[in-house]
Specification:
10 helices, D-Amino Acid Oxidase, Chain A, domain 2, single chain, nine-stranded mixed β-sheet, globular, FAD/NAD(P)-binding domain, alpha+beta
């Protein structure tokens, strides 16, 4: 069957692209394909549900702009759709003097990115907002919050089907053949033709790009984030979102606390190399994928630069007491017995050949294809804005 646009990946970013195209070009032929049986099966549903404000990202970057805009779009959509969106607020806490300047830099970035209501508080101010938390100073970010991302994805899929889009699950892309006027996309037993192909495959985006003949320098390395849930009697220790000052060398935010939309409190995640792109808790490891990762030049250079940090994360992953110790830096009353093993998510982190963890979103074009090659956190928050941005690129390929 022939379509105007085939979107590979039915996560929040892919659904966001489809929504933007459907709104800007009513009647356009859109199909979304995904290898899984449901939409939003991976990063879109394996996260803590935080709607990020745009605090952390370099002003002027694609990530900063699209996060701030995406959060606004997400909040508006949830209001119309009747999906809970709670602005619970976030405290980013400096617990030692060396973190005060990085905290000040976060405040500068937040103001440059247009966040409102940012407030610097001292130790007493921290206790007023989060009585169980401690620190020297903190930045209060009132626009941060939580949302049910799987519910957002399900509603987006429902709306798209109502608007005439097609969603084909259990469609694992095996080949993409280019021809005059578009491309032919094949799975094991199905075939689609489209004028434009948009790759939003997340964890598999680099592999899909390779299938399309794109020689990108971007390599996806899967990092697993492991969460704990606070036992019910310890939930009162956290009112909203409590974060450490992040290490500016890495795109990861460190072990933090999240009171989710259902009232449960998560602690985490950490960040360890995943043994496969779908290596969640209790999942079988993919040793072939690990060998490919270890054989990648960019990853080996990354390890050479940051092996101490990686080793620390791996050790903490094996020890609940060490995990609790990280949490105690922010909330001293936490005890190892308060931590119940929770879920895990896999972050599709792009790594360059020189071993750099790519911080900004990466979107590349090649012929009649558009590839979203790096859209980890805050990808879910920014998904509708990413969708509009990518849809505008796809529209240029479609012409008038």
């Amino acid at each position: 069957m022939a379509y105007d646009v085939c979107i590979i990946g039915a996560g929040l970013v892919g659904l966001g692209v489809a929504r933007a195209l459907s709104e800007s070009r009513p009647g356009i032929g859109i199909v979304i394909v995904d290898k899984e049986a449901t939409v939003a099966a991976h990063q879109s549903s394996h996260n803590s549900g935080v709607a990020h404000s745009g605090l952390y990202y370099r002003p002027g970057s694609l990530k900063a702009r699209l996060c701030v805009e995406g959060r606004r779009r997400l909040k508006d959509y949830c209001s119309v759709a009747g999906i809970a969106f709670e602005e619970s607020g976030k405290l980013v806490i400096a617990t030692k003097p060396s973190e005060l300047e990085p905290l000040a830099e976060l405040e500068r970035r937040g103001r440059a990115n247009g966040l409102s209501g940012l407030t610097r508080v001292d130790g007493e101010g921290i206790r007023e907002l989060e009585p169980a938390a401690v620190g020297l100073q903190a930045l209060h970010v009132p626009e941060a919050g939580v949302v049910d991302f799987p519910a957002v994805a399900a509603r987006l899929a429902h709306d798209l089907l109502d608007d005439g889009a097609h969603i084909r699950t259990e469609f694992g892309v095996e080949t993409i053949e280019h021809h005059e006027g578009g491309a032919r996309i094949r799975s094991a037993d199905q075939e689609i033709q489209a004028r434009v192909v948009v790759n939003c495959a997340g964890l598999y985006s680099d592999l899909v790009a390779a299938v399309a003949g794109v020689r990108s320098q971007v390599r996806i390395v899967p990092f697993r984030g492991e969460y704990y849930t606070l036992e019910p009697e310890a939930k009162h220790l956290v009112r909203g979102l409590i974060y450490p000052v992040p290490d500016p060398r890495f795109p990861f935010l460190g072990v933090h606390f999240t009171r989710r939309i259902d009232g449960s409190v998560e602690v985490g995640p950490n960040a360890v190399l995943a043994v496969g792109r779908e290596h969640y808790r209790d999942a079988d490891p993919d040793w072939g994928e690990l060998r490919r990762t270890l054989g990648d030049r960019g990853f080996r250079r990354l390890v050479m630069k940051h092996w101490r940090t990686g080793a620390t994360e791996m050790i903490r992953s094996r020890s609940r007491s060490l995990y609790a110790r990280s949490a105690q830096a922010l909330v001293p009353a936490i005890r190892p017995e308060h931590l119940i093993p929770g879920g895990a998510g896999i972050r599709a982190q792009a790594v360059s050949p020189d071993g750099a963890l790519l911080d900004d979103f990466v979107i590349e074009e090649a012929g009649s294809t558009v590839h979203v090659l790096n859209a980890p956190s805050p990808g879910a928050t920014a998904s509708m804005a990413i969708g509009a941005h990518v849809a505008a690129i796809a529209a240029r390929h479609l012409g008038r």
